[in-house]
Amino acid sequence: MSEATNDNLISGATGDWEVVLGLEVHAQVLSEAKLFSGAATEYGAEPNTQVSLVDAAMPGMLPVINWKCVEQAVRTGLGLKAQINNYSVFDRKNYFYPDLPQGYQISQFLQPIVGEGEIIIDLEDGSTKTVGIERLHLEQDAGKSVHDQHPDLSFVDLNRSGVALMEIVSRPDMRSSAEAQAYVKKLRAILRYLGTCDGNMEQGSMRADVNVSVRKQGDPLGTRCEIKNVNSIRFIGQAIEHEARRQIAIIEDGGSIDQETRLFDPKNGETRSMRSKEEAHDYRYFPDPDLLPLTFSQDFVDEIAATLPELPDTKKARFMSDYGLSAYDAGILVAEAESAAYFEEAAKGRDAKTVANMVIGSLFAGLNKAGLNIVDSPVTPENLGALVDLLSDDTISSRIAKDVFEMMFEEGPDQGKSPSAIVEEKGLKQVTDTGAIEAAVDEVLAANPDKVAQAKEKPKMAGWFVGQVMQSTGGKANPQSVNKLVLQKLGIEE
Amino acid sequence: MSASKLTDLSLAEARDGLRQKDFTSEELTQAHISAMEAGRKLNAVILETPEKALDMARASDAKLSNEEGGALEGLPIGVKDLFCTKGVRTTACSKILGDFTPPYESTVTQNLWDAGAVHLGKLNNDEFAMGSSNETSCFGPVNNPWRNKAKETNLVPGGSSGGSSASVAAHIGVAATATDTGGSIRQPAAFTGTVGLKPTYGRCSRWGIVAFASSLDQAGPITRTVRDSAIMLGAMAGHDAKDTTSIDTPVPDYEAALGANLNGKKVGIPKEYRIDGMSDEIEELWQQGIDWLKDAGAEIVDVSLPHTKYALPAYYIIAPAEASSNLARYDGVRYGTRLEGDNLLEMYEKTRGAGFGAEVRRRIMIGTYVLSAGYYDAYYLKALKVRRLISEDFKQAFEKCDVLLTPATPSSAFAIGENLDDPLAMYMNDVFTVTVNLAGLPGISVPAGLDAQGLPLGLQLIGQPFGEEALLGMAEKIEQAAGFDARPDVWWE
User: What share of chain B is helix, strand, coil (3-state, %, to 5)?
Assistant: First the structure.
């Protein structure tokens, strides 16, 4: 990585500072059952209703690997273009906490299931950057401690206890909060494409530990702080910005950074100390003697590889080459597998650029305003496509198209009205009959003789007449035809 | 048949008697319940389940009368308290489990009930199976039915399966389940004149057995005869999808393997087991065993297991390391004993401080230490390397022989309290047995004679992985040659 290209520096009293970021993302594996038990994983169940004897660490209970989770981890590894380890080992990470029934978390320490890989992140300016993946390993989630239900007691909900997580560790390759956010967005997109994690940060199925350090460019890495369990992309940005400035202020005041674990408080946008290095746990990792090493054949990997979907980067490249979209538009469309699918459905056999514009413009704006997901879009891809058809064959003007889109959006898919039915019903067809347009042009010209005189001197005035004609025809006149006739009648050369 | 006659029967004899309808399971069970009640001074049984036993016996009688039933139909047995038994209190003889009553049945005991066995009660053991004398139990020590000639003090029955060995030696149950992590089946069997079989690691499911050291724990039977051992193992063993370390290989008919000819079989004598300070009596017993097997047609070969001397230290690193983690779940949060504290840490400290006995606390501390940052490589990792070398030693030895013959213990049973303040002396009890657990091999202890004090001594046979048939066949030859029919004087009734 070229260090000289970083233009995301933070200026301090003593000059510019570079922030160095690495992320550990915990992604909940999409699976029916937990990593080592048959209990269900569904979100939002009543407390302690999805707990097996194994999850509650009853005496004599033993973990048995859920191969679905192994498959999902391999699938994710393949999606991250990573080394898949056919031999990996589950270790116990020992510590005491009431929501950790076994007194240890089964994780992978020295020999993870997935080794080095990479993610190409897409930045605001349309450029890309490669971020290294150090490893991915499988581990159990802990339960949840509930502190606000009783004045003196804490309660424990073990529904989450034993749910499979993938911990995905990046290299410290990111240099700004925007890059870190882009990394999480891209990782989330890849996981969703793969169907290995729903990426739902609000429900906690994806959360990030952010490692932050600062340095003067070219200096060795500074001491890092780890901000634990940040659960939204916005908070990741805020936490990094605050933490980087906090560290810079300390160093510039002549202090030094203590390696520690910190927490981000979304209420004030600040990070605060959770525990220092001295207070850090000694987890006493050792291979879990209840479990044999995790081994699988290359065939197992190959079978999963054969079912891998087209991933965002490939799809983006295809959208650019096949549909002629810009990198920016293609990037927006492929960010979610559902948007990409919607676009492709709507663009079938049509002018893809117009479809892309309508999806990114009208549709995304409408969905955003209504707080809807694209899979719940009131406008089906078929109808959006049909609307583009009406626009392309000059049945309606682009202005009318906007109105029709809004009507379709309002009515919703249940009404099921095609755009042509709406155009028909409301009489919105573009007037292409030159006779009718000519009459309208003549009328406007006749009513404004002074402006006609001015326009002959100043050809730019022609636009005013076009607007008047469009208004008098209720927007239905074909703007190109109107323009042509106005210029002709005013005697202006095109 | 009189009640005392019924408790005289071996498991095989009782089984045959039931099948021939010489008596009913209810009669047989009632006789053993009476023996159990009469034997309370031994403290071998910590929870008697006579009603359950009689219910099960009557159900067995119904099956037997229809010529139905499993391999153990109607036979009353005791269960080491390490096995979780559904609806029956299971404590691992630790205060920390309180009155814990599992809502589930361990696979091994379920297999036994499925085979028709009758549940007499739960048997005493060292707390969490940590001990070699059954003195660490929160229910107090078990008294060995055997006493020395002077009869001045009560002796330990060995451990950790002391309740199992004592109950079988005292004819309270026809057999008992036990577990062996470093010798906990074989040493108590040797101390009580019974047969103790530790199967190959993975032969019996560990599911539902309170874990001590997961990579070493294995369930097995304690019985009065080798044939009974074969019958019990056949019912206990089997693959279990709920235990990843259990091995999916068919369970042979162990009883049918008995009586095999030893001609051409090679018995290895590992020279490293001739340890410093070994008593003449043990030395002579070993030689006697060699002669018996030679007479039975086996060929004796000298073999070497060069890393044997490192086995005990390695064992006392690996087993506590695993235990320190396995016992972390006893935290007072979900079940068992809880002592309240002003905060979480205090609750943990009070609960675990009061719930665990001294030996368990010692092993948790050792285990925690050897896994800590900075010590892991020097202790735990090195112990794992030793473990591999020990396995390798056995592999090479088995290129020259079929089974190995060694003493089972360095001495006969010792007095209660004798080794209690000397953990290292106590740990020495396992010197001949831990290697077998470290290598995951099957081992059996067979009564071979009495020492000068009139106390039983055992010989150990060590087999190759899943070589239980060969082991049992050879053990039977020792049993026959020894003609061991001594019984302790009944002093406890």
Answer: 40, 15, 45
For B197, the 3-state DSSP assignment is strand
Query: How confident is the model at residue B157, as a pLDDT?
Result: 98
Three-state SS string across chain A, please?
CCHHHCCCCEEECCEEEEEEEEEEEEEECCCCECCCCCCECCCCCCCCCCCCCCCCCCCCCCCCCCHHHHHHHHHHHHHCCCCECCEECCEEEECCCCCCCCCEEEECCCCCCECCEEEEEECCCCCEEEEEEEEEEEEECCCEEECCCCCCCCEEECCCCCCEEEEEEECCCECCHHHHHHHHHHHHHHHHHHCCCCCCCCCCCEEEEEEEEEECCCCCCCCCEEEEEECCHHHHHHHHHHHHHHHHHHHHCCCCCCCEEEEEECCCCEEEEEEECCCCCCCCCEECCCCCCEECCHHHHHHHHHCCCCCHHHHHHHHHHHHCCCHHHHHHHHCCHHHHHHHHHHHCCCCHHHHHHHHHHHHHHHHHHHCCCHHHCCCCHHHHHHHHHHHHCCCCCHHHHHHHHHHHHHHHHHHCCCHHHHHHHHCCCCECCHHHHHHHHHHHHHHCHHHHHHHHHCHHHHHHHHHHHHHHCCCCECHHHHHHHHHHHHCCCC
Contact residues on chain B for A285, CB-CB shorter than 8 A: 371
Quickly state the pLDDT bin for A6 (edges 50, 70, 90): low
The kind and range of the H/E element at B299 are: strand B299-303
Put simply, the answer to whether B211 touches A284 (Cβ < 8 Å) is no
Structure confidence by residue, pLDDT tens digits, B224-238: 999 999 999 999 999
* ipTM of the complex as predicted: 0.96
Average pLDDT, chain A: 91
Structural domain that includes position B88: 3-258+463-482
Backbone angle region of A311, left / alpha / beta, with phi > 0 → left and psi within -120 to 50 → alpha: beta
Residue B395: inside a domain: no
B101 close contact with A: CB closer than 8 A: no
**In the beta sheet, which residues pair with residue A121?**
A129
Q: Is B400 a catalytic residue?
A: no
Give tens-digit pLDDT for A287-321: 999 999 999 999 999 999 999 999 999 999 999 99
Distance between B395 CA and the closest CA of chain A, angstroms: 21
Q: How far is B106 from chain A (nearest CA, A)?
A: 8
Query: What whole-number distance in Å separates Cα of residue B88 and Cα of residue B104?
Result: 10
In a domain, B370, yes or no: no
Provide the residue ranges of all domains of chain A, joining segments of one domain with +.
Answer: 3-305, 310-426, 434-490
CATH number for the domain harbouring residue B117: 3.90.1300.10
Instruction: Say whether B198 is catalytic.
Output: no
Provide the number of CB pairs (under 8 Å) joining chain A to chain B.
93
Please tell me the predicted confidence (pLDDT) of residue A442.
85
Q: Which residue has the tokens 């549940």?
A: B119
Question: If you average pLDDT over residues A26-39, what whole number do you get?
Answer: 97
Going by C-alpha positions, the residue among A80, A74, A83, A84 that lies closest to residue A118 is A80
One of 1.10.3470, 2.60.40, 1.10.1740, 1.10.10 is the CATH number of A434-490, namely 1.10.10
For the stretch B383-421, pLDDT in tens is: 999 999 999 999 999 999 999 999 999 999 999 999 888
Q: How far is A360 from chain B (nearest CA, A)?
A: 51
Under-50 pLDDT residues of chain B:
none
Give catalytic status of residue B160 as yes or no: yes
Largest CA distance in chain B: 70
B329 with A282: Cβ contact below 8 A: no
Domain assignment of residue B409, yes or no: no
Does residue B214 fall inside a structural domain? yes
Name the pLDDT band for A485 (thresholds 50, 70, 90): confident
- Structural domain count, chain B: 1
